[in-house]
Write a structure and sequence with these properties.
- The protein has 160 residues and is an alpha+beta fold.
- The chain has a single domain, classed as 2-Layer Sandwich (Beta-Lactamase).
- The protein is built from five helices and six strands.
- Strand 5 and strand 6 form a beta hairpin.
- The longest helix is centred in the N-terminal third of the chain and has 16 residues.
- 38% of the residues are buried.
């Protein structure tokens, strides 16, 4: 497991993760298979996560996709909670304290911070990548940039 936040590796650590993800997904194009692998990869390689996975855009509503962690909310409306806000705005949401986020959906009461990256391919929202942590302020600006890089690799190597 790589503790990127506390090891001071910043984007250098994410460079290694990017290379590993490229290799992991190199021989498969199926979106669901790659999403399952990617969520397991993130969950096993990033320190201090309690959930890593996907919500997929289904008729302007987010529906649970492949993930690692506790049981999750199944459907999230656009604009609702951190995931729905990322979907509605098409902007990454990095939330230091989810309990202070207006409209936060507490799928797992142990989650305290969250990073949600919208997945957009050819101008179309595919869904969002959601990472949760039991720690407050778990995700740094460097984490956001690194996870956005990883998400771009996932989208490039997956048919969707």
């Amino acid at each position: 497991m790589i503790d990127l936040q506390n090891a001071g590796q910043g984007l250098d650590g994410y460079g290694l993760l990017c290379a590993q993800l490229e290799s992991l997904l190199a021989d498969e194009r199926d979106f669901i298979a790659n999403a399952a692998q990617f969520s397991a990869f993130l969950y096993s390689q990033l320190d201090d996560l309690n959930w890593a996975g996907f919500y997929l855009n289904r008729n302007q509503e987010l529906v649970l996709g492949p993930f690692q962690g506790q049981i999750a909310c199944v459907r999230i409306a656009f604009g609702r909670g951190v995931c729905g806000t990322a979907a509605a705005t098409l902007q990454t949401q990095r939330v230091e304290d989810v309990h202070a986020f207006a409209g936060h959906i507490a799928c797992d009461s142990a989650s305290n911070s969250e990073l949600v990256v919208p997945l957009v391919k050819e101008g179309r929202l595919i869904g969002v990548l959601d990472l949760d942590s039991p720690s407050l302020a778990r995700f740094s600006v460097e984490d956001q940039a690194g996870i956005e890089r990883l998400a771009a690799i996932f989208l490039r190597l997956s048919d969707c």
